[in-house]
User: What shape does this take?
Amino acid sequence: MAEEEEKRANIEEQYVTFRSHEFKRNNREEGDKLVLVTRPLSVATEQFLSIRTSLDFIVEEDAVKVMVVTSCEQNSGKTLISANLAISFARGGKKTLIIDGDLRNPSLQRYFYCDRNRGLSSIGDISQLKDNIFETEQENLYILPAGSININPADYFKSSKMKEIFNELRMHFDIIIVDTPPLLAVSDASVVSNYADGIIVVFRSGKTKLKNAKKTLRILEQSPTPVIGSILNDTNEFRDDYYYNYNYTKSF
Assistant: This one.
């Protein structure tokens, strides 16, 4: 036990050099949507806790550590879902890292304060990884933003550097959640999924078209990384702004 605590202390010292001071809870349009922080007794919070419980089973049974979150199209709510899931895992005692893998349209800064000049695209070599990870005010939760360097995301995600980055992060975090672009828009999510253990697909009630959902699932069937679940967002079933329904699956 003492050895494990010492190991975690070393990780803390090595991998956290900047602090993302607080959640953006003062922005009602964005920060307040981190429901686990702002509305801990809401229906939406209960749904996220339920989703995490389902995922906990998969994490333990199938040794899932890295999860890619994607969707069919834009405005599905995948970034917000990624952020709330990350908070949920962190509160459950897992050392959690959330990565903004949408280098074309970074969105995690809507919910977390961090230096936009640092992040995934700013890592020149593996020694710079520690300088681009931020600690949040939530215990056990860290963020690797997208960064601001203008690069070709597809080429960057296919590089040997990216494989090295994920291999290094695996050694220091219990759970890694990667928010990626919509699958039908660009190929980034498919490429990043090669470094992951599971994929979560977000659909939005009343917005996601059936033909797009089917096309997304056909694409994912070709991926070597299994789909471990899908989340139906914004069903509004209990009129609590957002309602999330999780479906556990190992294959389609």
